[in-house]
Amino acid sequence: MKVAIIGATGMVGEVMLKVLEERNFPLTELILVASEKSVGKSISFKGTDYQVVSLETAVSLKPEIALFSAGGETSLEWAPKFAAAGTTVIDNSSAWRMDADKKLIVPEINATSLTKTDKIIASPNCSTIQMVLVLAPLHKKYNIKRVVVSTYQSISGTGLKAVKQLENEMAGIKGEMAYPYPIHQNALPHCDVFEDNGYTKEEMKLVRETQKILDDRTIAVTATAVRIPTAGGHSESVNIQFESDFVLNDVRKLLSETDGVIVQDNTDVNTYPMPIYAHGKDDVFVGRIRRDESQPNTINMWIVADNLRKGAATNTIQIAEYLMKNNLV
Ligand code: 2RA
C-alpha cells in the first residue's frame, strides 16, 4: 500500500511512523510530507532514509492512502486535492469532522459505515475517542440521556511548544510561552480557543463529536477541558445518566468485553487507570466505576488513554487497516 503521511515531523506524525512499524503495516511505498522548511530533510523508517517532500510532489505520486496530521488549514486545502487524485484521506484535524458529508470514525464503533466512496474520512478529537469507546456499548445497552465530562489533558496535546514550555519551567529557564500562564504546578481550564457560548472549542468537540459518532443528537453532553502538566495521556472524569437502571458488575463486565477497552478497577488494591501507565499503549483504560448516589440511573467513571496513540495516530491507522481489510481502498 502506497501511503503518505502529511505532517510527518509533528508529534502525531512521529507516532504514526512508530505505530506503522509496530503493526507491520503492509507498505509498498512511504511518502513523507512536512512544512516547506522541512522539504529535503531525511527521516529514517525501518532502517531506510526517506526524504521529506512537498504536498505538491506527494499528491502527484498518487498515494492510495494519505494520513493527515498537519492542522485544519492544510486539511481543508489539500484533502480534496488528494481525494481528486484518487487518494483516500484519513484526517486527524478538526477540519472535516462535523461536515455532514464526511464520516467521523472510531473503528470499533462505526467503521462498518465506511464505503469505497468515502475519500475523506475524519478521525475524532483525542479526548472524544477515548470517551466514546466507553460510551458506545453503554449507550446501546442502557440508552444514555446525559454525559458530564471533565478532562485532564496532557500538554502533549497542545504540541511541541507547550512541551518545551513545561520543560523550561521545570528547569527554571525562561523561554517561549505556548500559554499565557505557567504550565508547571498549574492547571489551565483552557484547551483551544473560547467560543461565544463560553465553552472552548475542545469542550464543544466533546459535545458535537460524541453526538455524531453515536448518531444520537438527543444525548446531552457538557464538558470542561483542563490542561495539566503531564508528559502524555489524557484523563477524564465522566458522569453518565442512563434512561434505565443498571447493575454495577454488569457494566464492568460489558466494558471488559469491549474491544480496545481495559477495565482497571479495584480500589481494595489501589487499582485504577493513570496516564503515566497508559503512555505508549493503544487501549483505553477505565476505572473508579461507581454508582452516582446523588441521582438515579447514573454512574461515574475515570477514563484514561494515550492521546497521541489511540487518541490520534493509532485510531487513524486502524481506520486504514479496516479499509484495506475490507477492500475499500
Ligand atoms: C489537545 N485534543 O489535547 C487536542 C489535540 N490536539 O489539545
Automatic annotation (TrEMBL):
Enzyme Commission no: 1.2.1.11
Annotated residues for binding of phosphate: 97
Pathway membership: Amino-acid biosynthesis; L-lysine biosynthesis via DAP pathway; (S)-tetrahydrodipicolinate from L-aspartate: step 2/4; Amino-acid biosynthesis; L-methionine biosynthesis via de novo pathway; L-homoserine from L-aspartate: step 2/3; Amino-acid biosynthesis; L-threonine biosynthesis; L-threonine from L-aspartate: step 2/5
Matching CDD domains: ASADH_C_bac_euk_like, VcASADH2_like_N
InterPro entries assigned: Asp_semialdehyde_DH, Asp_semialdehyde_DH_beta, NAD(P)-bd_dom_sf, Semialdehyde_DH_NAD-bd, Semialdhyde_DH_dimer_dom
Active-site residues (renumbered): 126 (acyl-thioester intermediate), 234 (proton acceptor)
Record-listed substrate binding positions: 153, 227
UniProt keyword terms in alphabetical order: Amino-acid biosynthesis, Diaminopimelate biosynthesis, Lysine biosynthesis, Methionine biosynthesis, NADP, Oxidoreductase, Threonine biosynthesis
Binding site for NADP(+): 9-12, 37-38, 156-157, 307
Family the UniProt entry places it in: Belongs to the aspartate-semialdehyde dehydrogenase family.
Subunit structure: Homodimer.
UniProt xrefs under HAMAP family: ASADH
Function as written in the Swiss-Prot or TrEMBL entry: Catalyzes the NADPH-dependent formation of L-aspartate-semialdehyde (L-ASA) by the reductive dephosphorylation of L-aspartyl-4-phosphate.
Protein name as annotated: Aspartate-semialdehyde dehydrogenase
Species of the source: Bizionia myxarmorum
Gene that encodes the chain: asd
